[in-house]
Amino acid sequence: MRHKRSIGTIRQFIRERARAWNCVNIIPKPQDVQVWSGYFVFSDCLKFDVKSSEAEIACNHLKSYLENLGVQSSDSADQVIEFVEADMAKEAYAINVDSHKIQIKAHDSSGFLYAVYSIKQLIPVGIREIKAVAIPLLSLNDFPRFPWRSFTLDCSRQFFSIETLKRLFEQLSFYKINVFHWHLCDDEGWRLEIDAFPDLTQKGAWRGPDEILPPDRGSGQKRYGGFYSKDEVRELISYAAQLGIEIIPEIDIPGHSLAIVNSYPETRCSPVSQQLLDKGVKLNTICPSRNENLVFLKQILTEVSELFPSQYIHIGNDEVERAHWDNCESCQKAIETNHFNSSRQLQDHFFRQVHQTVKSLGKEVVAWNESLADPNLPQDTTIMSWEGVDPAKEALAREIPVILCPGPYCYIDMAQGPFERGHSWAGFLDMEKVYSYEPLEDLNNTALVKGYGICLWAEYLDQKDFIWEQIFPRLLAASEVAWSSEKNWPNLMKRYKNYHCHDLKSKGFPSRINKPQIVYKNKTVSLIKQDPNDQVYFSTDGSTPTQSSEVYTMPISTDELSDFKARLLSPCGSWSSVSRVPNFDDIQESQYSHYPYQIKTYRKARYQEPESNAGKGNRELYVWVPTPYMPGEFIDFIFEEPLKASHLEIRSGVPKTLRSLVEEAELLYSSDGSDFHKISDFVDGVSKVNIQELSIKKLRILFTKEQSEWTAIQELLIKA
Question: 121 with 480: CB under 8 angstroms?
């Protein structure tokens, strides 16, 4: 039942809506916009006038949206939404709003669709009916900064359903991202149906105790995996195309190929060096010297090229572990026959052969920036520059086209702050840092920059909904970097708080709410807020802050650091995760003593972070075991002399992150090296205990539950 409003009430409603929901909500920021006095006030009856076949998808999208808000479509309606084809650049659009008509101009379907998205963002999110909602009269001309605006998703380490990918595509399109770069294979799984080689999916798509690929990345001691059938891929390609998204497949070779070589062992190097395997060096490359492997890959790439209409195929060429090639008879013969000086030249030769295969199929080649090590790299290779900006500079100097995706700004698998889940090798990456990146800064020959992309690798996406918390709201910042050369951080935050955090919540997307940073000094806790107007609640008794807790307004004096907690309440009513005072070693590191010891993991540690890292007193070193521990397994700390101290803390995880924590385990001690007694449990990856009355020869971490991921152990913290 609709309620009538008086004329005065309607005018007041219009003024309130116009102030709260004006054109600052348009995302990405339009290139040229003018706002006039007056408003277009929606009635409950509209005429949709479509004068271009390219506008049909966009019109249907807008019509469906408005019908859900009470609009009826009628050719006799006084108000008109008009779609007009115009001579404009690809993806560009124009919107003109007067008191009785909204006119949309574009040349292609993407331009019309992007215009509709911008119009939707002029309308308050969450309303139930649109009658009497006002938007300002305006003229807007908009076009993208880069023709390539991509999102990379790793579907090897974690397998994502068709439904999940469709939800993702809808939001990518809403943010005007037009390329989905699909990482379909890696060491942890092959995800694409290939008729010529069915074992790639029958065997290589699965991890588990009885599978050819071991449990990894949180998959646990059970069968895990999946793959996309060709029919499912065709469905996704069609769905994405209607949203203005091109899907570019990646077949990552010759490295990152454990799923391939374990499915088809004849593709690997021979003989296999057990010594290298014992050191933890993966045998995860296709042998680059076997002609049979080139035939094998051509059959795969032929099916890929027939399935995907995109003009591009990405063929990887990154992080290739060549150590096993030095032991391979075929590789050594190829190096000698071709008069190569190194296995690197063999890799370059192999890549150029695969490159030629892709070109023969009528496709263009995309590859990662390690390919630039080849001085004879074909200039028509498009390089994705992920290891910083320097590879992009080199490529442009060599007149090789580039996609800019440097890890420190574009890898949203990075943790968003200290002690948050995610990678950290490229530093912490929050929304503001994503937005701070200026793609063309200090670059020459920028005409060869095809575009900009963000990447999400899936090592830590095993937890439910964590994929969305990694994507949102950072994707919002990235989309504006890709679309517009003009940036304004306060304006972006205003749009996020006024519209986008509400929009994400209404669509059911969990998103990361920026939590306050805590600084402790002289027994005083201060909070650093991203916005001075952020509402932050805190507690000093160890409880989780709620709206009944105190609001932070000034620094707090406290002696009990571990009991202080704070969290932010967002404008859309969602809470951030809890902020705690930084750990003791960051505050009182000088109070801890170093006692020499050895660590025994009883599982193979990574050769980059070996057992020998432990006991040196270096807080930057740690030991990392790249397989999950099982119940009953343990890690031992062995002291040269019996340990006598007052306080002991065992910290797990990669330092200053939430990666590879001990999940459920007990801490035991032994005075004689053989009889063990429990002294504490691990909580949030840490075990703290007073040991002033103990003499300790050995400490033991006893795992009581299957670990979901790798385990990292930091240096012991011991207080004398």
Answer: no
